[in-house]
Design a protein that fits this description.
The chain has about 525 residues and is of the alpha/beta class. It has 2 domains: about 375 residues, Malate synthase, domain 3 (TIM Barrel, Alpha-Beta Barrel), CATH 3.20.20.360; about 110 residues, Up-down Bundle (Malate Synthase G, Chain: A, Domain 4). The chain has 19 helices and 14 strands. An 8-stranded parallel β-sheet has the order 5-2-1-12-11-10-9-8. Strands 3-4 form a two-stranded antiparallel ribbon. A two-stranded antiparallel ribbon has the order 6-7.
Length: about 525
């Protein structure tokens, strides 16, 4: 399998990308820690004074190619073969082929994901399950447009080394897909499209733009062929939406409201900035919380002013075909979520399960009608200040004993799944990815370090967390979930309680897999 993907020419291309751009990647990732420390000490971030002219100027991103003009429903999921076929057949306009948070960087997943993308691009992807069920692309459904999400800048790929150092995971994922599939996609009337995760500044967007320019020139692909949608899923990036689009303007397609990672980033950035930044239970923090509302309103206004698409966030609720009540509740919640986004001006949104595609499509059809998008809604009336983006204290809800238990339970369950090679885990009727565990453990860390009092009067301490962790471990053991459980519990305790806060739990978790 790896021989098909790791050809000498493809590896040489990825090596060239790494030798050209890895040093800059290292500098920009190191810069994040300095900026976070400054923001935490000040208790605030602000829009950049040095880029005020870009925000004030009149400019627009490149027009969208035909197969990215209508994005009313996007389905997300890993590049596992059966799930890829189901996503392509789902009726969604776009499949976010996820090599990042819904995937795990087990080497088999990295390579098989590229094989599956190769076959999906050519329309030859098929799969037969162990039970004998056959999966293939349907002839009566237009396959979803493929948009690939590579890993974030912070992750390395230790299975490939160049000049004695691990490769940059993002450049491996991008480089292999672009090398093998860019020309084929163009020949089929599409193109190499990407979702870019975890960025924290326009300088990181500039780096991606330089990667795109270099890659297109190197393979003699016309400049501007690549299109990128950026996930605004970090708090620093929310203050640089205009600048990020500007840096990528010849390659930009839009911005996405990556809501779960955004919560994680908020906690991480201001984890030691005092009680005003302590969030209540995760489930209490809805998209109508004032600071979340400001974030999405600013995103739509920024995108439409620049001719870029605004894509809504993940509907994590998933149906259960064996439980009609669970399914009905999931559909109601997804409908309400998508109705809010469509009314706010979003051009489309994400779902995590094929059964949710019709619900999202119905909602956006009702607003869009025959229009492919609503770029004409510029939302000029929206004005968002730095204070509104950071108004965490106005969030309703409380920290509860049930919330603490839920954070530990979901965090450990997800890490067990991640270590086993599954990055998209159905937990308690929600489709969870790595952002779930990140929110869980960072929130526990914040509650401990702020001596947060729960609804039952208990103060959150390391001892209380360890007690809850022991209960969760016992419960999962009774359920028979013993594979990787000890390692998952140790990892969760480390990233939730260690004084030195790990920027990403997937980094120490990566050390635990082959």
């Amino acid at each position: 399998m790896s021989e098909e993907i790791l050809t000498p020419e493809a590896v040489a291309f990825v090596a060239e990308l790494n030798r050209t751009f890895a040093d800059r990647r290292d500098e920009l990732v190191a810069r994040r820690a300095e900026r976070r420390a400054t923001a935490a000490a000040a208790g605030r971030l602000d829009f950049l004074a040095e880029t005020a002219e870009i925000r004030a100027a009149d400019w627009r991103v490149a027009p969208a190619p035909a197969d990215l003009a209508d994005r009313r429903v996007e389905i997300t999921g890993p590049t596992e073969r059966k799930m890829a076929i189901n996503a392509l057949n789902s009726g969604a306009k776009v499949w976010l082929a996820d090599l990042e948070d819904a995937n795990t960087p087990h080497w088999d997943n990295v390579i098989s994901g590229q094989v599956n993308l190769y076959d999906a691009v050519r329309g030859t992807i098929e799969h037969t399950s162990q039970e004998g069920k056959h999966y293939a692309l349907r002839s009566d459904v237009r396959p979803a447009t493929i948009v690939v999400r590579p890993r974030g800048w912070h992750l390395d790929e230790r299975h490939l080394e160049f000049d004695g150092r691990p490769a940059v995971g993002a450049l491996v994922d991008f480089g292999l897909h672009f090398f093998h599939n860019a020309r084929e996609l163009l020949a089929r009337g599409s193109g190499p499209y990407f979702y870019l995760p975890k960025m924290e500044s326009h300088l990181e967007a500039r780096l991606w733009n330089d990667v795109f320019t270099h890659a297109q020139r190197r393979l003699d692909i016309p400049h501007g062929t690549i299109r990128a949608t950026v996930l605004i899923e970090t708090v620093p990036a929310a203050f640089e939406m205009d600048e990020i689009l500007y840096e990528l303007r010849e390659h930009a397609s839009g911005l996405n409201a990556g809501r779960w990672d955004y919560l994680f980033s908020l906690i991480k950035t201001f984890r030691d900035a005092g009680a005003d930044f302590v969030l209540p239970d995760r489930n209490s923090v809805t998209m109508t919380a004032p600071f979340m509302r400001s974030y999405t309103e600013l995103l739509v206004r920024t995108c439409h002013r620049r001719g870029a698409f605004a894509i809504g966030g993940m509907a994590a609720f998933i149906p259960n075909r064996r439980d009609p009540e669970v399914t009905a509740a999931a559909l109601d919640k997804v409908r309400a979520d998508k109705s809010r986004e469509a009314a706010d001006g979003f051009d489309g949104s994400w779902v995590a399960h094929p059964d949710l595609v019709p619900v999202c499509r119905e909602v956006f059809d009702g607003v869009l009608g025959d229009r492919p998008n609503q770029l004409e809604r510029t939302r000029d009336e929206v004005v968002v200040t730095a204070e509104q983006l950071l108004d965490v204290a106005a969030t309703p809800g409380a920290a509860t004993a049930g919330g603490l238990r839920g954070a530990v339970d979901v965090g450990v369950r997800y890490i067990v799944s991640w270590l086993s090679g599954n990055g998209a885990a159905a937990i308690h009727n929600l489709m969870e990815d790595a952002a779930t565990a990140e929110i869980s453990r960072s929130q526990v860390w914040q509650w401990v370090h702020n001596a947060t009092t729960l609804d039952d009067g208990q103060v959150v301490t390391a001892e209380l967390v360890r007690s809850v962790l022991a209960q969760v471990r016992a419960e999962l053991t009774a359920e028979g979930a013993t594979a990787h459980l000890d390692t998952a519990c140790e990892l969760f305790e480390r990233v939730a309680l260690a004084e030195d806060f790990a920027d990403f739990l997937t980094v120490p978790a990566y050390e635990k897999i082959d």
